[in-house]
Amino acid sequence: MKKIFIVLLLLMVPVIAWGGEGGGLVPCSGPDCTLCDLFQLFANIIEYLIVYIVPPIATLFLVYGGIIFFTAGGNPSNVAKGQKILIAVVVGLIIVYGGHLLITAILGVLGAAQSVQWPSITICD
To answer: Helix (H, G, I), strand (E, B), or coil: what is residue 111?
Structure first.
């Protein structure tokens, strides 16, 4: 299972990183990149993780925890294990999205970003 996940991730890298017109993580191409583009790259990576990676992984863990919880058959250790997984997923989602919301609000108030529209942050224009 781990090998399949790694192969799929490696197959996605060129599509994710393509920086041409209208898409990709890389905001510039060639030698015309600036420091501003580096910060935009970091913002794009965080946005990609929050929008495309975290929800499917959280869903898988919610399903896994629910299956363990509902198939416990009265076994207290499995019930506790399922509850622990479900609580950990919810707390993790609160931390990830709450942290992103806090950073987005701070950048918006300080004027460090050109445009703040959740979940995307535009550093460069």
So the answer is: coil
Could you read off the pLDDT of 29-44 as tens digits, one per residue? Answer: 777 778 877 888 888 8
Residue in 55, 19, 45, 54 with CA at minimum distance from that of residue 120: 45
Which residues, listed in sequence order, are joined to residue 122 by a DSSP beta bridge? 115
Q: Are strands 115-117 and 120-122 parallel, antiparallel or unpaired?
A: antiparallel
Radius of gyration of the chain (CA): 19
Centre a 10 Å sphere on the Cβ of residue 68 and count the other Cβ atoms it contains. Answer: 19
Alpha helices in the chain (DSSP H): 2-17, 35-48, 54-70, 76-110
Cβ atoms of 109 and 102 within 8 Å: the answer is: no
**What's the whole-model pTM score?**
0.72
Cβ 12 vs Cβ 28: under 8 Å: no
pLDDT tens digits along 3-61: 776 776 666 666 555 544 456 677 777 777 788 778 888 888 888 888 888 898 899 99
Q: Give the domain ranges of the chain.
A: 35-122
